[in-house]
Amino acid sequence: MSDEYLVKEGSKVLIYIDGRRKRVINVRKDGKFESDKGVLLYKDIIEKPYGSKVTLSTGYRAYLLDPLITDYLMHGYKRATQVIYPKDLGFIALLSGISSGSIVVEGGTGTGFLTSVLAHYVRPNGKVFTYEVREEFLEIAKKNLRMSGLDKFVVYKNKDIRKGIDEKEVDAVFLDIPDPWNALDAVYKALKPSKPFIAFLPTVNQIEKLYMALRNHGGFIDFHAYELMLRELQVEPGKVRPQTLMIAHTGYVVFTRKVIKE
Amino acid sequence: MSDEYLVKEGSKVLIYIDGRRKRVINVRKDGKFESDKGVLLYKDIIEKPYGSKVTLSTGYRAYLLDPLITDYLMHGYKRATQVIYPKDLGFIALLSGISSGSIVVEGGTGTGFLTSVLAHYVRPNGKVFTYEVREEFLEIAKKNLRMSGLDKFVVYKNKDIRKGIDEKEVDAVFLDIPDPWNALDAVYKALKPSKPFIAFLPTVNQIEKLYMALRNHGGFIDFHAYELMLRELQVEPGKVRPQTLMIAHTGYVVFTRKVIKE
Amino acid sequence: MSDEYLVKEGSKVLIYIDGRRKRVINVRKDGKFESDKGVLLYKDIIEKPYGSKVTLSTGYRAYLLDPLITDYLMHGYKRATQVIYPKDLGFIALLSGISSGSIVVEGGTGTGFLTSVLAHYVRPNGKVFTYEVREEFLEIAKKNLRMSGLDKFVVYKNKDIRKGIDEKEVDAVFLDIPDPWNALDAVYKALKPSKPFIAFLPTVNQIEKLYMALRNHGGFIDFHAYELMLRELQVEPGKVRPQTLMIAHTGYVVFTRKVIKE
Amino acid sequence: MSDEYLVKEGSKVLIYIDGRRKRVINVRKDGKFESDKGVLLYKDIIEKPYGSKVTLSTGYRAYLLDPLITDYLMHGYKRATQVIYPKDLGFIALLSGISSGSIVVEGGTGTGFLTSVLAHYVRPNGKVFTYEVREEFLEIAKKNLRMSGLDKFVVYKNKDIRKGIDEKEVDAVFLDIPDPWNALDAVYKALKPSKPFIAFLPTVNQIEKLYMALRNHGGFIDFHAYELMLRELQVEPGKVRPQTLMIAHTGYVVFTRKVIKE
After folding, report:
1. Which of A65, A169, A225 sits opposite B235 (nearest CB)?
2. From CA D223, how far away is CA C115, in angstroms rounded?
């Protein structure tokens, strides 16, 4: 195993105890991880390989994992706002068609979940330009993206995206704001022809309003409004069943794309 | 608009007529597109910009779009097998944590849907090693990936992944084969510690069997079995409702990750 | 087995061949049942007990079953309109609290599915008063309910329920019409205090409009809007999985109940 | 309004404060209802009509409602076991085809939810024979059914239904026990030919095992395994959306029916 796959000072590590106890930590020589299952001193994990089993102060076992993007989101980031969950993030990213090198614009940075996923996929040569009117959210998002190392692929703008998008010929625009219909001129001007505009919206009324505005505006085709429901199965041998509770609704994903207006 | 955003001979174009009539074509000077709504000669679209409106022989309108990855999958690829749909593909890709530069292994190339999404995300410096025992599927997958331009990021192997994985220290392993439990040794050896193994399985019994094999094998933690249901809304102003029919089941996504066995 | 459990001339029988081939027939001495699996002469089934296996002209087997209420609906009734399916019918009936002896009012007879379920539950001493403006639907519904023997518990009214309900102190009102908000005065006057009013509506906009009208009208509390999704499992030993396709949406069930206005 | 629609001593009343505060009470002259929104003395509601608005000690308003069957279940009954919810109860009842006068058998009384719904629909001349091995559950169920007034339509048996069903020629058998496959002989003997047997089961493995046992046993056809998912909409004008959390799984409904074995 190569050197760089050892935990070092400054490494990020997902401490995995069990399904409910996972946390992404930033390894500092003098820090420690505390949980109801025991304590772990960071100095004791430095130089251990990722994937190792370690023992908490109580004798309880834990694992040191190299965090995945979803670990950062779900077990590392501080939340400032409602977030978009992985089920929707993966779908949004795939529908948008973006990949390494893409130039994308996001309105409504919020906690930075979608920002992170976009940055994760467009790196190292692409860029995410993210607009957020509330500076306090932008600060939290920045801190979150610094943790996951995605910060350097993002340009943060403390601006109202409805008033205009500075970038041109972008590969996709994403809006997670309450009134995306007020940003359609900006969106249209920023997008390359044939490229997608995707909005995330919690209510049916917003979808309806957005559709009407899109049709009114012209220059958009291929409308879709999707909802994803995620169920997790409980798999105990001989007792397989869907989990009792599920998040039944977070929001709808609206997809459309730009064509040249005549 | 820059030059390269014009349709050229050899370009791929999504001809978009309406929600039910979309097809990705490969532009050849002497070719033509035929549909129940009319005919389009390819020579008439060369040098037109992407995003343009064109007129079919019948007077019906269509649009020339730069295909997104999902357009290639859904409206371009020839299908040889059951496929994994975008709702699951986006989720699988995100859960796996892969991005540009990742080295990944796939077992069960099939039609090449997942292969394409993996290649799309790991390019330009990453690589997908895909194993398929049936040569005829591999040929179809290759042809599909050549269409989408993703072919160069893939190494095709006409081999049984259950008998071994040649690659080492890979960032993720994906299996879409009926008996993934028979490939666990190979999977374990190939993966970097802390990295994910993801399987796609249509039946509950396969999930149960895989879980039991994973627990027996040891060296895997953080088990999840997910199911995604996708509903599309019909959005006519004043008449918003979910679509009547939906694909209620394709398969389950099983996620786990490797830890170091003692 | 007692005499009356034999098939007689005039009996209704569910001919059950397999999951896709079921039909409720009315036994006439000289009639016959025809299917792609063979023919069955009714004279050959008279005096056979319900539950018997019989042989079609082709040698294929079938069963003679005493039809359940859902068999009449799904495999006997002629459809004139969109119908409410059993998943919603059972829920609507239970929520309404009706049982033997209840006096209920329905607006929008349509094909008579809900009418039948209501009659089925209120018999023998209760009564269903059903309003339908389109006489041709009423004729089809009557014919359907005569088949299932539920006809005698129903009073058919070729009237517009929005203009008034003749009955007073009823135990529940059910509306399956496009604009239930236009019938609220009639509904309110007909209902016993504390009894439910239930509407079945396909679109979200109708729900919203009905809620606003109910709140405006006053005298209604305990609002609920439900959606039921039904999935069927395919159960082959060792291969259990949800069915691929499902009816994802038929309509929403809106529930409320009357209180005394001051 | 007729006399008997007034609240009397001994009446059951649903005190409705709001969506989260509902309780079915038994009116005793000297009793009182206590909630976090205030107190209501029962003596103050005697002789008030059902549907009235009353005022709690705090000035907060509440309504006096005549309880529906689902109010008794959800806001009146004491729970001793996992219960079957209204979404499944309505569907099970409708599928079974039972109505006033039916003679039905239930195995696994538990808290008495299904017992109550069956009694509710078969009354006044039908009967529910319910088997339960645990006497303490039977006591709770009896107390529950006395509250809803359904007690007199039920015969309680502190017996193991797997060892035999005393009744013959019954219209339907319902099992909510962990191992229904061990009761198939008893079920088969008790049922009228062509009548349904319905089981409620939480896990996929139980469904599979039951199907195999049914096929092995013979004499059953028309197999179905259903799952119902209930979503409630939040309907605030201009902000309609599905509720965030939902009960994603309670159990599966297995349906089959008896034919004559040769």
Report:
1. A225
2. 27
Report DSSP letters for chain A, one per residue: --GGGB--TT-EEEEEEETTEEEEEE--TT-EEEETTEEEEGGGTTTPBTT-EEE-TTS-EEEEEPPPHHHHHHHTPPP-S----HHHHHHHHHHHT--TT-EEEEE--TTSHHHHHHHHHHTTT-EEEEE-S-HHHHHHHHHHHHHHT-GGGEEEE-S-GGG-----SBSEEEE-SS-GGGGHHHHHHHBPTT-EEEEEESSHHHHHHHHHHHHHH-SEEEEEEEEEEEEEEEEETTEEEE-SEEE--S-EEEEEEE----
Torsion (CA) C7, C10, C11, C13 in degrees, nearest 10: 100
- Which chains have 3+ CB pairs within 8 A of C? A, B, D
Report the percent of chain B where pLDDT is more than 70. 98
pLDDT band of residue D1 (cuts 50, 70, 90) is very low
Rounded CA-CA distance B27/B8 in Å is: 7
C163: left (phi over 0), alpha (psi -120 to 50) or beta: alpha
Q: How far is C89 from chain D (nearest CA, A)?
A: 8
Q: What residue ranges do the domains of chain A occupy?
A: 3-67, 72-258
Using alpha carbons, list the distances in angstroms from residue A183 to A158, A160, C78: 16, 9, 51
Residues of B in contact with D208 (CB under 8 A): 205
CATH architecture of C3-67: Roll (3.10)
If you average pLDDT over residues B7-26, what whole number do you get? 96
pLDDT at C2 over 70: no
Q: Minimum mean pLDDT among A201-205, B230-234, D2-6, D169-173: which range?
A: D2-6
Reported as a pLDDT band with limits 50, 70 and 90, residue B3 is low
Q: The tokens of B94 are what?
A: 């995100």
Residues C227 and C115 sit within 8 Å (Cβ to Cβ): no
B174 phi, psi to nearest 5 deg:
-125, 130
End-to-end CA distance of chain B: 59
- Closest C-alpha to B43, from B51, B54, B32: B32
Q: Give residue A48's pLDDT.
A: 96
Against chain B, the chains showing at least 3 CB pairs within 8 Å are: A, C, D
pLDDT in tens, D72-83: 999 999 999 999
CB pairs under 8 A between A and D: 57
A201 in Cβ contact with A214 (< 8 Å): no
Neighbours of D163 (CB within 10 A): 12
For domain B72-258, the CATH superfamily is Vaccinia Virus protein VP39 (3.40.50.150)
CA-to-CA dists, residue B131 to A83, B166, B250, B251, C90, angstroms: 37, 10, 22, 20, 50
Specify whether the CB–CB gap between A190 and A168 falls below 8 A.
yes
Contact C235 D99 (CB under 8 A): no
Q: Render pLDDT for B155-181 as a digit per residue (tens, 0 to 9).
A: 999 999 999 999 999 999 999 999 999
User: With the CA atoms of D150, D152, D154 and D158 taken in that order, what torsion angle do they form, in degrees rounded to the nearest 10?
Assistant: 110
User: What are the chain C neighbours of A204 within 8 Å (beta carbons)?
Assistant: 204
Looking at the predicted structure, is the pLDDT value of residue B4 above 70? no
Q: Which residues of chain A have pLDDT under 50?
A: 1
* DSSP letter assigned to residue D8: -
Interface test with B, best of C240, C243, C249, C253 (most B CBs within 10 A): C249
Going D173 to D177 to D178 to D182, the CA torsion angle's sign is negative
Cα separation, C104 vs C130, whole angstroms: 8
Is D112 in contact with D144 (CB distance < 8 Å)? yes
SS3 C45: coil
- Could you give the ipTM of this predicted complex? 0.97
The span from the CA of B203 to the CA of B178, in Å, is 10
Q: pTM here?
A: 0.96
